[in-house]
């Protein structure tokens, strides 16, 4: 009888564990299905231009320093580009000639979005950078640590309005440690990769916010041509447009000046028709276009600048 009583808790525990295991399995299956649905969801990629990434610190600025070819600035730009590309939500356009484009825009009075050719513009800078060695000496052991700290600032501009929709700064740190005991142990020399790691950590803290800000606003494009022969819109396969996809054709909203800020804002537009994608052509993201069929309303072919096409 004693043996039976001792085994009862064991059987109860096993029974409870198996039941719990089955419950966990059901939850996991539900999560997997949800994740699969998100993966299959079509997403239209935004065009993002990285205008510049400057080094505003005094690090590595000697007599022969070239501002246009700053290695640390290019390093940060490459890290940001890599992280944004990994999200698969953007078409990245590098605008190293941003200052020239902006000057041209001011002189000729061109539309900023047409000049840059992107939906959003990112401008970044390394605002702080430092490297230090920290040591600790004991009776039988010694520890040496190399530490690199970096601060990165980023501004995200909505090209259509010229407004800064996101601005933030983040800090990153990277370190390596070597230890010796009674004269034995590893020794670490100068580690150049710590710069990459510190800057990468700082940028990584900002990337998610950049992605969220860029995807908050619906994808938008414009008419290139509208006549009996063909109706064309900008954008194609690389942005995610596929045959049969339906888009909303809207008139541009009225522009009003906000008396509180003095900034001119565009009110929401009105849907007047539907555009169905037929096929796409073009060699590069900048030159891609799509043939569409417009139905459900009328479009004034002589005033195409009054319309835009938006994802539903």
Helices, by number, come to: 5
Please identify the structural class as seen in this structure.
Answer: alpha+beta
Radius of gyration: 28 Å
Profile the largest sheet. Answer: 7 strands, antiparallel
Give the strand order, joined by hyphens, for the main sheet.
Answer: 7-15-10-13-14-9-8
End-to-end separation in angstroms reads 72 Å
Q: What is the molecular shape?
A: elongated
What is the CATH domain class of the largest domain? Alpha Beta
**Can you identify the CATH superfamily of the largest domain?**
ABC-type transport auxiliary lipoprotein component
| Strand percent estimate | 35-45%
Tell me the series of helices and strands, N- to C-terminal.
HEHEHHEEEEHEEEEEEEEE
* CATH topology (fold) name of the largest domain: Rossmann fold
- Number of extended strands: 15
Rounded mean pLDDT score = 77
Helix content: 25-40%
Oligomer: single chain
CATH architecture descriptor text of the largest domain: 3-Layer(aba) Sandwich
Spans with pLDDT under 50 lasting ≥5 residues? 1-40
Provide the domain count. 2
Task: Tell me what the structure shows.
- The chain is of the alpha+beta class and 312 residues long.
- The protein has two domains: 46-216, 3-Layer(aba) Sandwich (Rossmann fold); 220-311, Beta Barrel (Thrombin, subunit H).
- The protein has five helices and 15 strands.
- The chain has a seven-stranded antiparallel β-sheet with strand order 7-15-10-13-14-9-8, with no helix packed on it. The protein has a six-stranded mixed β-sheet with strand order 2-1-3-4-5-6. Strands 11-12 form a two-stranded antiparallel ribbon.
- A hairpin with a 4-residue loop joins β4 (141-158) and β5 (163-181).
- It is elongated, with a radius of gyration of 28 Å.
- The termini are far apart.
């Amino acid at each position: 009888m004693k043996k039976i009583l001792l085994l009862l808790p064991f059987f109860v525990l096993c029974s409870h564990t198996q039941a719990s295991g089955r419950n966990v399995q059901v939850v996991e299956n539900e999560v997997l299905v949800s994740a699969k649905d998100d993966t299959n969801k079509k997403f239209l990629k935004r065009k993002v231009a990285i205008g510049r990434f400057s080094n505003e610190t005094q690090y590595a600025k000697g007599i022969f320093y070239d501002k246009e070819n700053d290695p640390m600035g290019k390093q940060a730009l490459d890290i940001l580009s890599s992280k944004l590309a990994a999200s698969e939500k953007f078409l990245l356009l590098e605008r190293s000639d941003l200052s020239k484009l902006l000057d041209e825009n001011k002189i000729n009075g061109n539309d900023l979005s047409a000049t840059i050719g992107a939906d959003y513009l990112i401008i970044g800078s390394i605002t702080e950078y430092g490297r230090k060695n920290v040591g600790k000496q004991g009776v039988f052991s010694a520890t040496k640590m190399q530490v690199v700290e970096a601060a990165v600032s980023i501004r995200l501009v909505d090209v259509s309005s010229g407004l800064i929709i996101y601005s933030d700064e983040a800090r990153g740190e990277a370190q390596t440690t070597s230890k010796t005991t009674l004269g034995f142990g590893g020794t670490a020399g100068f580690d150049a990769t710590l710069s990459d790691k510190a800057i990468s950590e700082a940028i990584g803290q900002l990337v998610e916010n950049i992605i969220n800000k860029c995807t908050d606003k619906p994808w938008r494009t414009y008419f290139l041509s509208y006549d009996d022969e063909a109706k064309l819109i900008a954008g194609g396969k690389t942005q995610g447009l596929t045959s049969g996809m339906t888009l909303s054709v809207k008139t541009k909203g009225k522009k009003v000046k906000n008396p509180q800020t003095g900034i001119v804002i565009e009110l929401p537009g009105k849907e007047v028709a539907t555009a169905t994608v037929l096929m796409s052509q073009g060699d590069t993201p900048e030159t891609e276009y799509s043939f569409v069929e417009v139905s459900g309303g009328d479009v004034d072919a002589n005033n195409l600048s009054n319309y835009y096409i938006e994802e539903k």
